[in-house]
Design a protein that fits this description.
Blueprint (H helix, E strand, L loop, with lengths): L2 E2 L9 E3 L2 E3 L7 E8 L7 E5 L8 E6 L2 E6 L4 E6 L9 E5 L8 E6 L11 E6 L9 E5 L6 E7 L8 E6 L17 E6 L13 E8 L4 E4 L8 E6 L2 E8 L2 E8 L15 E6 L3 E8 L5 E6 L9 E6 L3 E9 L8 E8 L14 E7 L7 E8 L4 E7 L8 E6 L5 E8 L1
Parallel strand pairs: 1-24
Antiparallel strand pairs: 2-3, 3-4, 4-31, 5-6, 6-7, 7-8, 9-10, 10-11, 11-12, 13-14, 14-15, 15-16, 17-18, 18-19, 19-20, 21-22, 22-23, 23-24, 25-26, 26-27, 27-28, 29-30, 30-31
């Protein structure tokens, strides 16, 4: 395992009249549009075609509501009011009823340090019109601290399953640094023939041997079939199907500098550089201050090579990859949730917001940075998609302390 230190850092973006312009020649230019300023906590954002017009709409999970913004007017409509146990925390989309339009799966009852009381899962069925509130259908859930949910085709049959992951295992405690108690159980639910009957849903355990699992993502499908990438206290893992079930294979160390405190990794996302070269990005340690990229091992090594891109941040939250400049390789997009805190030893001055990273060597070992947003949004989550059909991926970020949602329109170089 090789570790490389911080590489070349770009200069700040320019802000004027709601416009964000890149000051680095290697990065695209962006225009900023704020579409919401009244969120309590924008826990999650999802870009999905809600109304079937072939345009990505914006879905936001707030503390006690779920709302969507219709493309291109960004008119806000309510999907669900305060009907779940607070807080709502995560969401995914898949076609459950078979009508060709997405339903939503919502995780709620979020209490991050209550490792005894189960969270909740519901799937949401749309009303007769776009303005009607959606109907809640309960899903079986016996896991505390439900934290992330995704729709992933685990068995390769073309039909995604609902996969959800708690943050902590049952009965874990602060005194044990959340490593005692039971491990986290990653669960899957296949969509049954009659999804409106709760008893037809049958939860299955995917893995149950890791601790403090903050996030996961599907890896590009390989000869091994579907794989999941997961960030945990123990490090970075590939979760793979074997003849006897799923197995978590360690591929990255994470940050283990303080084993009795925050450790390992939290956010995780796969990407591809030019030439289809795989990379994996993480935030380290858990809720940490480092942006890290892993590149594949060479020779007989089993762990991926760890590269430290940036540690001038407090609490990275939200990681995505996208080919922002159309050169065939992905750029890395990272959200920063908190401002620097000198009382805790922070010496950097860069604020909460959105940062971009671009590989300059084609191998993922050298990168440059662009600060796209410096202070305007305390990023809890972000997502990337082409919202206006111009072929360029746009960025949507939702804020926690700032309570806002912003679109960063990609205008190219």
């Amino acid at each position: 395992m090789r570790c490389h230190n911080l590489w070349s850092i770009g200069v700040l973006a320019l802000f004027a009249s709601g416009t964000v312009r890149s000051a680095e020649p290697g990065f695209p230019q962006f225009d900023m549009q704020e579409i919401e300023s009244s969120l309590k906590v924008g826990y999650a954002v999802l870009l999905e075609d809600i109304n079937g017009d072939q345009k990505k709409d914006i879905v936001i999970v707030d503390t006690n509501r779920v709302v969507w913004y219709e493309n291109p007017t960004w008119k806000r409509r309510t999907i669900l009011g305060p009907k779940t146990k607070p807080d709502n925390v995560c969401i995914t989309a898949l076609d459950i009823t078979g009508d060709g339009l997405p339903e939503l799966v919502l995780g709620a009852a979020w209490k991050p340090f209550d490792t005894q009381t189960p969270g909740t899962l519901h799937w949401l069925e749309r009303g007769a019109t776009l303005d009607d509130e959606w109907t809640m259908h309960p899903l079986p859930c016996d896991e505390p601290t439900v934290h992330r949910v995704r729709a992933i085709d685990l068995d390769g049959d073309g039909k995604p399953e609902i996969v959800h992951m708690p943050l902590m295992g049952r009965e874990a405690t602060k005194a044990g640094n959340w490593m005692n108690g039971r491990p986290v159980r990653v669960m899957a639910l296949a969509v049954p023939a009659d999804p409106r009957k709760p008893e037809h849903w049958k939860p299955q355990v995917v893995i149950d041997n890791l601790h403090v699992m903050h996030n996961f993502a599907p890896a590009p499908r390989s000869a091994r079939g579907t794989e999941l990438l997961a960030a945990a206290y123990e490090g970075v893992f590939s979760i793979r199907r074997t003849p006897t079930g799923w197995n978590a294979v360690k591929i990255g160390t994470g940050n283990q500098d303080t084993p009795q405190s925050n450790r390992g990794a939290s956010e995780i996302e796969p990407g591809r550089l030019a030439g289809n070269k795989p990379v994996i990005a993480t935030i380290e340690p858990w809720h940490g201050h480092q942006v890290v990229v892993y590149t594949p091992p060479t020779g007989s090594e089993t762990l991926w090579n760890r590269h430290l891109l940036d540690e001038q941040l407090r609490w990275g939250h939200g990681v995505e990859y996208a080919d922002l400049d159309g050169d065939g390789g992905d750029e890395l997009i990272v959200g920063v949730r908190d401002d620097p805190n000198p009382a805790r030893g922070d010496k950097h001055t860069e604020r909460r917001g959105v940062r971009l990273y671009r590989a300059t060597d084609g191998t993922g070992q050298k990168w440059e940075r662009q600060i796209l947003e410096n202070g305007g949004v305390a990023v809890e989550d972000l997502a990337v998609a082409d919202l206006n059909g111009d072929g360029k991926p746009d960025i949507v970020a939702v804020g926690r302390a700032t309570g806002n949602a912003r679109i960063y329109w990609n205008r190219g170089k």
